[in-house]
Amino acid sequence: MVNHNGPIGLLDSGVGGLTVAREIFNYLPEEEIVYYGDTLHLPYGPRLLSEVREFVINIIDYFIIEKKVKAVVLACNTATSAALKMVQKRYQIPIFGMIDAATRRARQITKNKKIGVIGTEGTINSQAYQRSLMADDHSLEVFSAACPEFVELVEAGKFTGQEVENYAHKYLDGLIDVEVDVLILGCTHFPYLIPVLQKVMGEQVQLVNPAVEMAREVRSTLEERKMLKKAKNQQNKISGQQFLVSDISRISQQFLEEGSKFLGLPNLEFKEKNIFV
Fold it and tell me: For the segment 200-252, what is each residue's pLDDT rounded down to a tens digit?
């Protein structure tokens, strides 16, 4: 029996998935979350998909057994492309991925039917976004670029500055040349970089943040299943949230400072919980 007052579990390879946590706070302010960043195995992008699946199963098992979660969000595009369909069949609670809600939004807003996707090597090579975009509209042109250094920059707490802008040009200039009018941020780390990405792409290009589309989908599904938390607690935003990582030594002080501002929390504290020992 699922506890409807239980928390929502969010998992990612690191701290990028906190962009999803922020939107969950916005769209489901009454809910508590348990966030697990698998920094021990960061980054997921270059790893074998079979390896990523094992990490995801371990984390979901921990969520269900130890934290009694009522739903799980794969707040990681690589994890979504590697494991979503498999874990949805394996578990009875609702499990959400990052891809389909974002591609629906991109199809709705493109005017010239040229859509760009950026992500990790694992996400881009899996073709998950490309398949989802083309499933209902074969007239679309989809252009993609793997951007591995973006993940490293965010994990180091570098959200702005010339170094970020240089990498943005390195990865995005090719997408500008083919005139995409929509860019999907296919990694949960990338929304931290939105000001720089928008500057480089130009105001004529609409950025799709899958975290926003995901939070809307979670709220809609839990509402439909009557699984929303009934009692509202305004302190949840601060006191009711748990942030866990598998290796705390890989969280930079600069990220803690910048991440606190991004999430709108007075402070951001992680506890180490290595469930892979």
Answer: 999 999 999 999 999 999 999 999 999 998 765 555 455 579 999 999 999 88
Residue among 71, 187, 208, 244 flagged as catalytic: 187
CATH number for 55: 3.40.50.1860
Mean pLDDT of 25-29: 93
Question: Which residue out of 24, 76, 106, 218 is catalytically annotated?
Answer: 76
| 76 in catalytic set | yes
Task: Tell me the Cα Rg of the chain.
Answer: 18
Q: Is residue 1 part of a domain?
A: no
Q: Is 147 considered catalytic here?
A: no
pTM, 2 dp: 0.88
Kindly state whether residues 21 and 80 are assigned to the same domain.
Answer: yes
